[in-house]
Write a structure and sequence with these properties.
mainly alpha, single chain, 167 residues
Length: 167
């Protein structure tokens, strides 16, 4: 039995073991191991959001990133949105981009989604990384992007091409 198979079985039997296993999962179990442990939590607990939230708050940036990337595949509904909101408050471009992945794009309200897209623009995160942007873009977001472009032009600065594509 591989390390990952044992770890998943341990989490399914005793969900508390995830706190010891999660930080070392990539090292011991390889890429995707953390996502597997999160999936095991969803089968072991009727409400896994508290455990996932604890892992997020205890985790380093890499662990938080993997949690954010896994959220869309965990069938949690909007319950994990506080993690997305936290990631959107960071200055870590990887976390901001992950916050606007499939889960954030599905569950963020229009205002928070628009603000997240603008944060990506200000942080030079490519808009191609924003899941569902073409589906979610609306007149208000186009206006906000146009205002940003106008400010950049007025300052004699270039407007990112991916912003121009959305105007």
């Amino acid at each position: 039995m591989t390390w990952l198979a044992r770890a998943v079985a341990d989490v399914e039997r005793d969900p508390e073991t995830v706190y010891a296993l999660f930080p070392r999962a990539v090292r011991e179990g390889g890429p995707g191991a953390r996502a597997e442990l999160l999936r095991a939590l969803t089968t072991a607990l009727p409400d896994p959001v508290a455990a996932i939230t604890k892992l997020y708050w205890q985790g380093d940036a890499g662990e938080r990133l993997e949690i954010l990337e896994a959220l869309a595949r965990l069938d949690l509904g909007p319950e994990a949105l506080p993690l997305v909101h936290d990631a959107l408050r960071t200055n870590d471009t990887r976390l901001v981009a992950a916050a606007l992945g499939a889960y954030g794009s599905t569950w963020l309200d229009d205002h928070a989604f628009r603000q997240g897209v603008l944060k990506c623009v200000f942080m030079s995160v490519p808009l191609a990384s924003v899941e569902g942007l073409d589906r979610r873009i609306d007149d208000e977001l186009r206006r906000m992007l146009a205002d940003f472009a106008a400010e950049r032009r007025a300052a004699g600065r270039p407007v990112p091409p991916d912003v121009l594509e959305r105007l």
